[in-house]
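Translate sequence into C-alpha cells.
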Amino acid sequence: MSTNENVPSHIAIIMDGNGRWARQKGFIRFRGHEEGAKSVREITRACAKKKIKQLTLYAFSLENWKRPQREINLLMKLLKDYLIGERNEIRENDIRLTAIGRISALPEDVKRELRISMEESKNNKGMTLCLALNYGGRAEIVDAVKAIAEQVKTGKLNVGEITEETFKKYLYTHDMIDPDLLIRTAGEMRISNFLLWEISYAELWVTPVCWPDFKKEHLEEAIKDYARRERRFGGLRGEYT
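Result follows.
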C-alpha cells in the first residue's frame, strides 16, 4: 500500500487487445503483439520515472497455451527478444526485473534469457518490474496450498498456525506488496485469473483503449482517477469515523 495514498505504489496491468487492435487495422495478429511490446517499454519507462515502486504485467497466462502453436512460438520468440533487447533500458532506469508463474514450463531459451536479465538487475534500486509468465491466479493458490500441505505433512507447520499472513508467504508474490491499482485495457470487464489473492483491495480501472494504443497519457489518466478515490479497506472515514 502507498505511503502517499494518492499515488499507487504497485500498479498491475492486464494488457488486453493486441489481437483486436491488429484485426481492426487489417494486420495479422502477431503485429498487435509486436506493437504491444512497444507499449510495454513506454509504460515501464513512465512508471519508473514516476517512482512507482512496482509494475506487474500479465504477459502470458496459463490459458494462452490454448492458442495456435504458431502464435505461441512467435510469442515466445517475442518474449525472448524483449528480454535481450530491454537490458539496456532496464539498466539505465535502475529497474529490477522479476517474474512470477510456473516459470519451469517455459522454453529453455526463454528461461535462460530471463535468468540473465534477473541476475543482471537484481541489485538495481529503482522500480521492480514483474512479468507474470505462464501465470494463473488459481494455479498460484493451488501451488501455495500444496506447499503448505507439505509443510504440515512433514511437521514443519501446524494447522493452527495458518493465517492469511502465513498463506501469503507461499504465494509467488510473497516478497511483493499487493497492487493498489489494477488497469485493464480493451474494455473487458473481467479479472481473467490475474492476482486473485493480491487484488482483494485494489482499485480497478478499465479503458476501451487496446494495449498497443495505451500510452503514458492513459497511464496518467488512470493514476489521476485513482488519486480521486477514497480507499476504506472495509472501514469508515469522514463523518462516520
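Note: Residues 209 and 229 are 22 Å apart (CA to CA).
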